[in-house]
Amino acid sequence: MPNTSVKNGAKLALVVDDSAMQCKVLSVLLKEEGYRVFTANDGARGVSMYIKYKPDLVLMDINMPIMNGYEATRKIKSLSLNNLCPLIFITSMDTDKAFIESIDAGGDGILVRPFSPEVFKAKIKSIQRISDLYGQVKKLQQEQQQDAELAEQLMSGVIEARNFALEKIGIVKKPAALFSGDIQLTALSPNGNINVLLGDFTGHGLRSSIGAIPLAETFRVMTKKGFSLIEIITQINHQLYDLLPTDLFLAASFVTISSHDSSAYIFNAGLPEAYIFDDKGEIKHKVLSCHPPMGVLPKLIEDVNLKVITVEENDRIVLISDGIVEAHNEQGEMFDFERFEQAAKLGIQTENVSKTVLSAVNEFCQNMEQEDDISLIDIPCGGWHQTFAVHQLDGSPSENKNTNQIVDNTASWTWSLHLTGQHLAKVNPIPVAMNQIHEIEGNAEHWQSLFTILTELFINSLDHGVLGLSSDLKSSAEGFAEYFSERERRLKRLSSGFIDLQLRYFTHETGGRIEVRIQDSGKGFEHKEIMNAGSNNENHQQLSGRGIELVKQLCERLTYQERGTLVEASYTWS
Amino acid sequence: MTINKSSSENKKEIKLSISERFDFSLHQQFRDAYVHCNEEGTEFKLDLSKTTYMDSSALGMILLLKDHADKISGKVIISNPVESVNKILEIAQFHRLMKIEG
Fold first, then answer.
1. Distance of alpha carbon B69 from alpha carbon B39, whole angstroms
2. What is the rounded distance in angstroms from the CA atom of residue A271 to the CA atom of residue A320?
3. Which of A84, A136, A282, A538 is deepest in the core (most CB within 10 A)?
4. Higher pLDDT residue, B32 or A533?
5. Distance (Å) from the C-alpha of residue A147 to the closest C-alpha of chain B?
6. How crowded is residue A470: how many other Cβ atoms within 10 Å of its Cβ?
């Protein structure tokens, strides 16, 4: 293309006029203004010169042979949709009609002869100023587009690519703008629970994405450290309240799937109902929003609790954003909940929830423009045992066999925490303990097992010891939910009682050992029954006592004393 | 006008009536309607009886209004939302933040 080489430096002007004399006069004036000038003597030639040279300015006569100025202008303007090339008509026809027609044809101005050189130059300057402004806007727009693309890459490549178990959890994400205000996160907690978040930031585009990175970071780090779901939610709410302006917030549903106690914990803050379906696609539960979106209030509302639901292996939890139910068709109808429920049912039966729902929405909306981000997460409630086992391999109990090489009987360090009354309800000491271990001994895979041991033993002491809850309640699925609400009630009223947690760390020649000692102020519990029950395989489906069974498998030694108020466990690794 | 504003004689009550669509396009207009009402204890009544569509940025705009009302010890009351809009307010649990009547 010749234009690129010609274009370096001076601006180009194209003069289209059948009078050679006029061409000459205009050329001289333009050259005085610093333009390089090409000329054409009829409209058709003008169009082909335009294509060839892509000038910065066109001056057009009206009456010309072969193709007149109006027609040539229409052609040129249709060729330069994305590029403002200012075009001025130069004519001696001083009529309203000529003026109107030249603007209609796409001209940016008209200059009627006779005019002085000064008037001509002023006109050129003013038109060039507009053209420069247009160029600046265009450039800004391109930069904005690049920023948005970068943000999207970051979101999908960095934030969401780090999600856990993407092969098992179905995710639909269809943004309205390039950058979606919706966010989907999944992460694995050290005790094998799966945490999932579906969030919808106010609005869409770049503005709605500023909270995404801190949100993802908090969700991941806290899950990894083993904080409970309600602690994670509390922190996220607080963080977004601090970080975001008043009118920006995050509607979100949070789910923990705990396969070892066959439960799902759900918290819905500002999203449409979260669904739990059985394996035939029938609705078992809907969890309605019970809290304003994250970041609206400085603290979570006190009387709001997580919903605890007993789930079976083949149940599925489906979270949706409002973009699905509010999707419109040409008649202005909404897709709504009923159509979603039907599509989800069909999806469960055909084993592809996300795809089935998405194509139902698409079919419903036909060619309507999508107004809001559409997203969905489909989470299986079962099949997580294997996943966890794989992730836990490094800390598996088989390593505990080389225990006869103990060389040192004095502890390298000890750490203890004594919690009383309401602090037991408010503080989860396990992440605190794990932090200590990380601080002193650094990161290691086998801390995952230790985390499980500490969590299970602490919860046992709190529930059955301090709170005096009977695990009989947990023997049925209904009882399980009841157990949790009773637990919440007793925790709130807790004013006395204590739990004493002590860790002693021993260094071995290879590896090491941690001895855990937890004592509580309770009356004790039927620890013998549970300790023995675990060894019987038939009891594996039982809902209670599984925690202790898990700890027994992980520990080298586990003993309950003093009616079950004192437990000692020893965990060894090499 | 897509936002209609009327105020009581003592200027203690401001009524803002919103048109059919309450979304980001009303942002500036909505803000202009209340930002100069600084009378201590003003009650802002947000009439949503004509509004049939509301998005999450509208919720954000209501929160900004509430911020403003809180600063002058006033309050915000949402009145007469139609069913579809009420559902959105319910999902966002706005009744925990302000009075919704009608």
1. 10
2. 7
3. A84
4. B32
5. 22
6. 14
Interface contact B82, partner A, CB < 8 A: no
ipTM of the complex: 0.85
Nearest Cβ partner for A203 among B24, B91, B92:
B24
Q: Which of B22, B26, B27, B56 to mutate to test the interface with A (most CBs of A within 10 A)?
A: B56
Range of the domain at B83: 3-101
Residue with tokens 């390298």: A412
Q: Nearest by CB to B91, from A272, A297, A301: name it.
A: A272
> Which residues of chain B neighbour A271 with C-beta distances below 8 Å?
91
The CATH number given to whatever domain includes residue B58 is 3.30.750.24
CA distance B70 to chain A (A): 13
A362 shares a domain with A232: yes
Say whether pLDDT at B15 is over 90.
yes
Same domain for A128 and A51, yes or no, is yes
Task: Give the CA count within 13 Å in the CB-facing half-sphere of A550.
Answer: 26
Question: Domain limits at A448?
Answer: 396-573
In the predicted model, what is the mean pLDDT of residues A363-377? 84
Q: What percent of chain A has pLDDT over 90?
A: 37
What is the rounded average pLDDT for all residues in chain A? Answer: 84
Given this model, what pLDDT does residue A539 score? 42
* Residue A380: inside a domain: yes
In this predicted model, what pLDDT tens digit does every residue of A432-454 receive, in sequence order? 888 888 888 887 777 888 888 89
d(CA A18, CA A291): 75
pLDDT tier for residue A382 given thresholds of 50, 70 and 90: confident
Number of domains observed in the structure of chain B? 1
| pLDDT score of A48 | 94
